[in-house]
Write a structure and sequence with these properties.
Length: about 160
Amino acid sequence: MTSAKIIIPDQPAQNNLGDGYLKFYLNHQTAAVLSIKHSQEAIIVPVESVTSMPNMPACILGLMNWRSRIIWVIDLPRMLNLESLDNRLRQYNVIVIRVESQVLGLVVQDIKGTTKFMADDVCSPIGQVTSSLVPYLRGCVVQKQEILLVLDAEAIVQSSVLHSN
């Protein structure tokens, strides 16, 4: 029995924990994750704290002040062509992401916490999800009988920067 401990090195056991992700729901049935390295903060803000801007695409909710910085706030489900959020909400669940110098607020249905998985666990999204989602995904992961969309923060920021200019 003790020889098994010698054969199995300590290092891979720590790697098995995988990379950290923030887990949330885009709508009532679609679970997704974003890499912790791009997630700055998950906050709940009153709807009134987001100032709508005229002549913007429907997925852009407006601007808000986040830590003395003005950032764009995006209805992420609508941007991804999914069922959009209930427009009678009194508060938004916002995930603030950063990709290089770009900071963006993503409004989602519900924020669930963190999870971990290995990069090897991510499968191709092609054939698993609507083709319109594929450009925004790194892939899919099955965790506890649930398919999680692994979102690509860079693609979301690039797309929304194009929308808002």
